[in-house]
Design brief:
Blueprint lengths: L1 H29 L1 H35 L2 H99 L5 E5 L5 E5 L3 E2 L5 H19 L4 E5 L7 H17 L4 E5 L15 E4 L3 E4 L1
Parallel strand pairs: 4-5
Antiparallel strand pairs: 1-2, 2-3, 6-7
Helix pairs in contact: 3-4, 3-5, 4-5
Length: 285
Amino acid sequence: MPAQIALLEETLERFRPDYQRYLGAKRSADQQASRESDLAMHRETERRYLSDLRCSESRLSEMSRSFDEADLAVARRKHEEMTASVAKESADLENVRREAEREEVRFREWEEACARRDQIDGAILRLKRAASLAELARVALRDAAPTVAQHLCDRIAGHAQRIFNRINHEPVEIRWEANPRYSLRVAPGERRYAMLSGGEQTKLALAMTLAMIQEFSGLRFCIFDEPTYGVDAESRDKLGEAMLETQRAADLEQLILVSHDDAFDGKIEHTILLRKTSARGTEVL
């Protein structure tokens, strides 16, 4: 028995490398069928690729026979020219776009300017119409001026006549003619102002002054500075009385007189006397 065991162990050791190679190859042997199938499939694919390659080589050969280097150079030059032309056209297009934007801005400005121009034209038209109307009014006023002036003179003469007749002993009719020049006439007798007596002239001047005050200002008071200047001594007292009567006739609330003589002494309500000397100056008495 020991001899047999030793023989078996020796046999085992001798075939152990073969067995290990068997175990190592067994996995690949188990995959043989699938790998053979893959190999057949890859061979079929290779066959198709080779067929396509031969067809492509055949077409390439045909195309090589018809290929011309000169035509290629011409085509390249045309391509370069077209590329340059496209670049130029692109630049021109960009310039045109910028110019179009500027023109749009200018067009909007033009529209705004047209709107302003229309407004100005409208204003000018209105001003022309207003000027025409003003010219028409000027002509109308110019033509109506004599009539208006005469009407105003008639009104003032009427006021003066009422005042004059209240302070004069003989009633008169006063006419103030505005055309062709201002002239004052007293009826009856058609006497002009220069033909009146000194007293009548003074009374008429007072009446006209008060009448114009009533017509133009509506004042209820009047101030006279030296009303007796240039009047003779006999007429001063009459003038003082005439002025007081004039105050009542003109319905003045207040009459202030500044005078150097005594024509108004005892005739006015309040009197303030001033005396001026070289030594003491002006003082109230």
